[in-house]
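User: My collaborator sent over this chain with a note saying "see what the structure looks like." That's all I know about it. Can you take a look?
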Amino acid sequence: MTSNQNYASLIEEALVELSSQGIESLCPALERLFNELMLIERGEALQAHPYQQADERKGYANGFKNKMLQT
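Assistant: Without extra context I'll predict from the sequence alone. Here is the result:
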């Protein structure tokens, strides 16, 4: 469903954002990258994109809550 090229483009976008805005943008860039990767992973697990009707669909997702990562 998703190729390594899609992952590479997400990583490239995050690196461009970091290089243009500096280290201050590290947290927002990583947050955006992780959120996109989780959406891709959810689509692969369900074998369908959001709002897509597919015969091979393996389940449903009710959505998700925004959470703050605390380290």
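A starting point for your reply to your collaborator: The chain has a mean pLDDT of 77.
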